[in-house]
Amino acid sequence: MLNKVRQYPMIAAMVCVLLAIFFAVSRSQNVQVTGDSRAVTEPVFPTACTVLTAQQTAGSLNESLLDTSRIQSAINNCPVGQAVELEASGPLNAFLIQPITIKAGVTLIVDAEVIVFASINPADYSCPLKNWCTPLITIATNSAPNPGSGLMGYGIIDGRGGWTLTGKTNSWWSGGSDARPRLVYMGDFMNNVNADNFTLYKITLQNSPKFHFSGISNNMTAWGTKITAPGNAPNTDGIDPSASSNFTITRSYISDGDDHIALKAGVGHVSNGTISFNHLFSGHGISIGSETNAGANNVLVTDNVIDNNSAYNASSRDSIRIKSDSSRGGEVHDFLYRNLCIQNGGHTFVFNPFYTSATGSLIPNFHNITLQNVTVLNRDESLTFEGYNANGVVNPLTLTFDNVNVVGFKSSDFQSSQVANAQFKMGPGQVNFASTLTAAAPSDTNVTVTNNISSSQPFYDCTGKFVYAAGELFSKTTSVVPGQSLTLTAIVQPIVASEDATGTSINVGAASAPTGTLTIFDNGTAIATATLARPVASYQNSNQRSLTYITIPSVSSGKHTYTAQYSGDSNFGAMSFGSFTVNPGGPTPTPTPTPTPTPTPTPPPGSKVSVTLKSITPNPTTVGTSTTASVHFEDTGTGSTDITVILTENIVNSAGTVLKTQHTSLSMHTGIAKGLSTSFTPSASGTYTVQGIAKDSAGNVLGQNLNLGTITVN
Question: How would residue 621 be classed by pLDDT, with cut points 50, 70 and 90?
Fold first, then answer.
């Protein structure tokens, strides 16, 4: 056979081509999307080399009293691995700066009470290009493995994009020019040089004149960041990594006037990214492009929530987009969108290789895209699924739907005006529009559908996923001695901007100042309550967050892990958040990772359940390992009609891991009390929390208590 192939070189060439195609297809079908290749853990605050104190007040800024030189000098003289910290002093809580640079290896920490304001004098910003001005904060270039710099803290950096500029009648947002400063930029824009190993942690970035956080950085981590700008503030993207590899954007809250998160592959390849556990509100969603010419692959988008309500005043509303055109296109492949909850998503899915009318020879090619465990609670606007087909070049979109539910989809979403040049696979999970897509395919242009649905598992549950405020709990005191008091700071922070780009209130509940009460728990036991403090800073586009201080008197020896529970109000659901640990009389503990907040949506009127703890035996609830503890619940229904209740009883360890869970279905109405019980045999010492959660048959939370009681195991 080999000799015959040698006799026919054309046949041999064809065999080689076919084998190459076969192996390429085989590889592409078996690639596992893993995201960031690093084992990313929660960042920690470095030691401060210098602490600078604010010299003016946020509500009455003196535009001539600048802090630029003293902050820049402190950064320049700070040793690598340490930080410059900005702190308040009584009512003095504001810093005013012109552009600064954070040198490689140094971190800038902004304390919770502090607001850093950008200068609004255009003369302070050099604008050498029609689309580029000096950023407010530049992150100096740096190459891995050298230590990276950071921007951290519970405070705020405000770009003042809506303020009237010095000597002008317009703001950055209203001026109509694309030459506006970005808030934070990583690396050297003019020469496309990166700033590797950068960390953005806990900080609030708001009201940027243009993009909030962008640039080139390999091994970049954004953790617990809050970004807020009006929905109609132009080009105020949230987080835009460009030409970067190994990056993680996690546990962050973003509401702005453009892309929440945008991956740019224009000046370099994008790969190995993880976008996880984020809450996204006003904006244009999670986007890839439009610059994709350098290619992008292996990006994991998982466990994110999007609610792009039109009331948030966004200029445009989108959720999941891959966009490009033949003037800037390239290969985008192996993207996994998993465990997503979307409502009011605008154009929820947009895969568009003809994003603009620009043309060229850089052809888009989107393939091996997967939507898995995705629930869209309401179809809002049209969907787009399109591959490239022009001038004899065909690059079909290849996309898999696996357990995807688009509630209220329209048949027009899958007709030729919205779907073309695509190869769809469905399964193994259910797809609620499977029959509609299959029926439409023969009439669409170059569309095929393969139905591999074999599972009847329920669609992804979005109950309790939508959280409209971020919670933080911490103390500036990292260690105490027995008998000493400890002051905790709790932040409850709305993310949706309270005003539009002109400074006019948008009158939306999710943008209001939160009210209600806080309960502080020590190792699962309630020890203190406080009324949520009202916002103290008042200025244009100010943040409506609450900072509440709770003093714990005479802390005893031993390990104490403090958590917070917010009661909620008419605009915000109740939620548990934070974890701060001290160990008086013992070694200084390592910081406790902050768990993702657990929300309690407001229950429907007339169908509530009261979840109470009747008893724990033995009593007291201190037992030894391998000793069984019995937990007895009592539930009482309220409302005039019978309701079916599914009660979940959880036993949770100090790390937030559910060790045992039990589900019980019962029928209840006004005055009915039903007792239930579960047992738990611990295998290790520690403190375990008892939780009770009641839901109706549709999965709506009717009532819950995440701290019913504790079991201590010696």
Answer: low
C-alpha 351/C-alpha 420 separation (Å) is: 11
| 258 is known as an active-site residue | yes
The one-letter amino acid at 612: T
Half-sphere exposure of 714 (CA within 13 A, CB side): 5
Which of 284, 333, 347, 560 does the annotation list as catalytic? Answer: 284
Q: Which residue has the tokens 């989107």?
A: 366
**Secondary structure element (H or E) that encloses residue 72, with its range:** helix 68-76
Please say whether the beta carbons of 609 and 673 come within 8 A.
no
Does position 128 have pLDDT exceeding 50, yes or no?
A: yes
Rounded to whole angstroms, the maximal C-alpha distance in the chain is 92
Residue 373 near residue 300, CB atoms below 8 Å: no
Q: Which of 124, 196, 258, 303 is catalytic?
A: 258
Measured from the Cβ of residue 700, the count of other Cβ atoms closer than 10 Å reads 15
CB 248 within 8 A of CB 38: yes
Q: Which two tokens stand for residue 119?
A: 């200068």
Structure tokens at 509: 């509940």
Query: How far, in Å, are 410, 432, 491, 605, 670 from residue 469 at the CA level?
Result: 32, 31, 10, 22, 32
**Is-above-0.90 flag for pTM?**
no
| Calpha distance 134→27 (Å, rounded) | 44
DSSP labels for 630-663? EEEEEEEEESSS-EEEEEEEEEE-TTS-EEEEEE
Structure tokens at 641: 């009609």
Express each pLDDT in 650-689 by its tens digit. 776 765 566 676 666 666 655 556 666 777 777 777 777 7
Contacts of residue 458, Cβ cutoff 8 Å, sequence gap at least 6 = none
- pLDDT tens digit sequence for 509-547: 999 999 999 999 999 999 999 999 998 767 888 889 999
